[in-house]
Design brief:
alpha/beta, seven-stranded parallel beta sheet, two-stranded parallel ribbon, 13 helices, 13 strands, about 15% strand, NAD(P)-binding domain-containing protein, transmembrane helix, NAD, NAD(P)-bd_dom, transmembrane
Length: about 425
């Protein structure tokens, strides 16, 4: 075995060696090198800290990447009446959901209910933002891996649209263009667009089919029709999956009482007839105002197709499931049966048990006499049929929510944005 320890056989020489032949470390240089490393580390740490504190810094999350077997759906206007019900259904069906809403018509309380029901990380998130800000919209799309968009966000009152049409063209038409541009830029493949029967106007023939000419008579319907046209024109040179759902008059609420309709007090005058009925039953307003009793209908009041929100949401989910690349589907979502306003009021009186006072007033600008759907196409192609067709039962379910939420969700915009 080799011995690696050297033993000396001769005494060490006392001759000095030239200094140039030795490689001595300069302690000043060494300290300077260490100082530079330390300074670089400090600067790096400071940069990371500043980035984390910046509103533009968003570390990767489960929402920012695609996950096999989990579809991530952006629900615009998801804090609103219909959008929140859609988000609830998607979450129950194991979709990943992001809501974007500016809370101008929606309720933060509905968002908090969804957060409580689905607290697991990576399931649900809410982003407070305005779709009218294109820069913000593109940032949201860049930071989230969306697989589909359900576009509900809109102002949606016929009467209000005649008083403030520009608000409707901005909020509906322009904002839809912004969303579509962001989808195209960031490669989101599927759009489910929430449209309306108001695009048909006042057809000469009933029931309304998907082939009925679209001749809207109010800014709300016109703005929605323009948005549809933008989507369809874009699709001609795109492989995007597009489903357009034109729905009719929405009523009802979540059968389990978790979500309901809570419009802002200042918008009650423009709201749905169901909300007005409940307000009258609760004594918030002295009575119900029925606008128009001289239409060419059996009892002189307007005839509408009332669709329960649970059925409407089901149609949107089925449309999402059936969406195919490069294909467009356009469907009416209704019961196929028209009910007069007087019939509706009587059903509401029975559902609430309150003898609601009714005042009959002149027609509202932009209204039409009779509108109800032919749902044959959606039944044949999406296997969808309305199930909650008992008007009184739908109103009873909604009334239960109203009675247990006398102040709506109990939150204001001031609280929501603070």
């Amino acid at each position: 075995m080799l011995n690696l320890v050297r033993t000396r056989t001769q005494p060490r020489s006392n001759r000095s060696m030239p200094l140039v032949a030795m490689d001595y470390a300069d302690p000043k240089k060494k300290n300077n090198f260490v100082g530079k490393i330390l300074m670089a580390a400090i600067l790096t740490a400071l940069c990371i800290l500043m980035l984390k504190q910046s509103p533009d810094f968003n570390p990767p999350t489960s929402f920012s990447r695609h996950e096999p077997g989990v579809a991530h759906v952006l629900v615009t206007g998801g804090a609103g009446y219909i959008g929140s019900h859609a988000a609830l259904r998607l979450l129950k069906d194991s979709y990943r959901v992001t809501i974007v809403d500016n809370l101008s018509r929606g309720n933060l309380g509905a968002v908090r209910i969804l957060q409580e029901l689905f607290p697991e990380p990576g399931r649900f998130q809410f982003i407070y933002a305005d779709l009218g800000d294109a820069k913000v919209v593109h940032k949201i799309f860049s930071q989230n891996a969306f697989d589909a968009v359900m576009h509900f966000a809109a102002v949606a009152y016929v009467g209000e649209s005649t008083l403030d049409p520009l608000k409707y063209y901005h909020n509906i038409t322009s904002n839809t263009l912004t969303v579509l541009e962001a989808m195209a830029t960031h490669g989101v493949p599927t759009l489910i667009y929430s449209s309306t029967c108001a695009t048909y106007g006042e057809p000469e023939k009933m029931p309304i089919t998907e082939e009925t000419p679209q001749l809207p008579i109010n800014p709300y319907g016109k703005a929605k029709k323009m948005a549809e046209e933008i989507i369809l024109d874009f699709h001609k040179n795109s492989n995007m999956s597009v489903m357009i759902l034109r729905y009719f008059n929405v009523i009802g609420s979540d059968p389990n009482g978790r979500l309901g309709e809570a419009p802002r007090p200042e918008l009650r005058e423009h709201g749905r007839i169901s909300g007005a009925c409940f307000d009258a039953a609760r004594g918030i307003i002295p009575g119900l105002k029925v606008r128009g009793i001289d239409y060419k209908t059996a009892d002189g009041t307007c005839i509408r197709d009332y669709i329960d929100v649970t059925d409407l949401v089901d149609a949107h989910v089925k449309a999402l499931e059936k969406a195919r690349p490069g294909k467009v589907g356009i469907y009416n979502v209704g019961t196929g049966r028209g009910r007069s306003v007087k019939e509706f009021v009587e059903a509401c009186k029975t559902a609430t048990g309150v003898p609601i006072k009714v005042d009959f007033l002149p027609r509202r600008p932009g209204d039409y006499a009779e509108v109800y759907s032919d749902p044959t196409k959606i039944r044949n192609e999406l296997n969808w049929t309305a199930k909650y067709t008992d008007l009184q039962e739908s109103l009873q379910i909604a009334w239960r929510w109203q009675k247990s939420h006398l102040n709506g969700y109990g939150l204001s915009v001031a609280v929501a944005t603070s």
